[in-house]
Amino acid sequence: MTAPLIGARVQRKEDYRFLTGAGMYTDDVALPGQAYAAFVRSPHAHARIKKITVDQAKKSPAVLAVYTGADLAAAKVGGLPCGWLITDVNGQPMKEPPYPPLAQGKVRHVGERVAVVIAESLAQARDAAELIEVDYEVLPAVVDPVKAKGAPAIHEAAPDNTCYVWALGDKAAVDGAFAKAAHVTKLDFVNNRLIPNAIEPRAANATYSRAEAGYTLYVASQNPHVERLLMTAFVLGLPENKVRVVAPDVGGGFGSKIYLYPEDVVVTWAAKQLNRPVKWTAERTESFVSDAHGRDHVTTAELALDRDGKFLAMRVRTTANLGAYLSTFASCIPTILYATLLAGQYTTPLIYCEVTAVFTNTTPVDAYRGAGRPEATYVVERLVETAAREMKLDPAGIRRKNFIRQFPYQTPVALCYDTGNYDATLDAVMKMADVAGFKQRKEESLRKGKLRGLGYACYIEACGIAPSNVAGSLGARAGLFEAGEIRVHPTGTVTVFTGSHSHGQGHETTFAQVVADRLGLPIENVDIVHGDTSKVLFGMGTYGSRSIAVGGTAIVKALDKIIAKSRKIAAHLLEAAEADIEYDRGVFKVAGTDKQKTFGEVAFAAYVPHHYPLDKLEPGLNENAFYDPANFTFPAGSYVCEVEVDRDTGATQIVAFTAVDDFGKVINPMIVEGQVHGGLAQGIGQALTEACRYDSTGQLVTGSFSDYAIPRAGDVPLFKLDTRETPCTHNPLGVKGCGEAGAIGAPAAVMNAITDALGVKDIPMPATAQTVWRSMHKAA
Amino acid sequence: MSVKVSMKVNGKPVAADLEARTLLVTFIREHLRLTGTHVGCDTAQCGACTVLMNGKAIKSCSIVAMQAEGADILTIEGVAKPDGTLHPMQAAFKENHGLQCGFCTPGMVMNALDFAKSHPDPTEEEVRDSLEGNLCRCTGYHNIVKSIMAGARAMAGKP
To answer: What range does the domain containing B6 cover?
Structure first.
């Protein structure tokens, strides 16, 4: 029997190919007869298209085709659908304006696609794209979400630029609690818009086979089956069985590669028109203006407390900027994944949240790592820390006074937490971060001319959104299950097919650990296949930290079936009753004897069924399972950030960041730590460096890595991490998910630390040196 | 306008007729089909396209191929031993979980190979400074820093 693999720091199976340049990303795919696409994009945020002149471009060398919105409309190509219907406070459906793949009559954000040129080479396509003349009548741009209502209409379908006004909670009861509160803490802030910037730009390469009457699309996607479903059923009207979508190696996603994008649709459609493979790869500048952005909330948040610091009620009003069009899951992010998290780790009995979602002439906004939960955590944890300061209470103490300690716990905002231990993570982080020694460190910093601050964040997240029927009743237009398949080969090696997609998370290792451990196999004998609709039976893909909790559980369910069948085969081989067969990690034993068969022997018997109960059992060993979770999982954790602010320049340095997370059972601690590191860096980026700026005409003025600062190596510290474990109660592995935690908890911890250092109530994100310097000088 | 270029890539002489504006990275990826060298931006910021030119780390997106005329180019595909054994720097990335999605990784490794030559036992701060021109969105740099520190020591024969 092999050593246990669950909980082991197994090095990653996928690393060798990435380290030797053998990864195969979408842009690396070159198909015979490859043609290349270049998109013409709107330079205006809001304009009417009067005329598009394409003659010169069509005559340009090696150009195969030029298409505009008119061509797509003539071919009856549909608009991009939104996957979640939100019902507003009046019971009306949200406004769903059309989202054509190429602009029809109007452009609504800088970077919107107006035309596409397809040529023999990329350079020729780009050259020809330069020759397309578009005559625009520029219209006033709506940029500020708070002023969107009443501004010129962006869509006919939404005359007041409002997609919906949605609310959750008992407003009257909340207002009543506020009226009686001993103390009210109020904050007004912006949860800043972020640009995801996976280092691999989006790419799509489509080909059409007349012989098979079918398409293959290679695309940088987090969920190829969803991409196929949306594209075939809603946009191109193709038979799903005739479209294969492959998401090969994908260079990071963070949410931005969940969605169906216009470019994917256009190259797929064009591949058939031209009977040629058509490839498009985003330039980084295109990514900045056309990948869905994240966050962008304007919020007023209030917390009512009694005189002892016990939370009585919370009241939150948010304007959420959806951008110019409804991206695939845009509508559920500032609602279902935001307001439902406002209880945090606390027993706040009454919560009311009202969200106004508006259209503006900016790039569409959708899920970005954390998706609603970082915004909720920011509301809760900034309020809690500020309340503690205002009431002169210890910030850890006020949290402890309000922690949820009885599980399951039904929050006033719809979720039911199955398990958790918030004292455990807070105790651990305070010890690891040496909170007791902070006062001394603060004095030492002061002697160096630096202001030192300490901030906490105790976050909760909800992962593996489910169950499907409940989500459906809340407006989801898709299922939220996951599929897995175990194919055992005659010699006992195994190929596992999962509907989850790995684009950095290391599923090829983690999932293999789960399977190899259960089957008692060396991990080399287990391969994980994902990302290809022609291989994997179905899948919802990877988002919302769901892969191990939902995808991993589907695999476990399939494993259960494999072992159940193997037990029958083993019983036959061992001439024993099935009930007498004991199974443990690869070995079937007759109870109380030394008679046994290994998993490999059973697999061989299944495929060479010479001594086999053929009258009772099919040969072969291959099982699949679909798993629809009973509930979300609820990872939680406590973070402590310590900063030093330079009094002369305002530059803020994170001198220590300590994170203690509870992800339930951890399969591979090394990979989990890596996920936390990355999440923390993105959270720190939001807090300190990432400023997305539009000017008043709707131009993105931070449209390159020179202007938009994703964290560099010098911006982040070495992190101190640990975990505590309360296993999830409703999945067999006891796992919760870890992909987004860092990005959810970090912004509040950093901003609580900076405001502590400066002695101010609030400061906007990102707290760049300039912003901090201005704050210090205003305060002085 | 087409130009003739010739250079050595991963020890092998290569030559081609190219449009003069062809970038070195385009030559490497599209003409030689060595797709381990990646393109992550168009402003020479991200470093995913880093290769060694005559032993020095350069961004292959910021020069045209003909500027590498006669040069000795090393890409990620030429770093491991011919039998496939990982170079100590590659091994250090694997051992320290210094990569996630793998897209920035070739550039990180190539840059680290150049850096390690002059820094056999680098400090954390030196490594972070060396990464000014290489962006990663997955790892938070924590394990990349550890990988490069370990890889540099391994290259220098230090434990």
So the answer is: 2-78
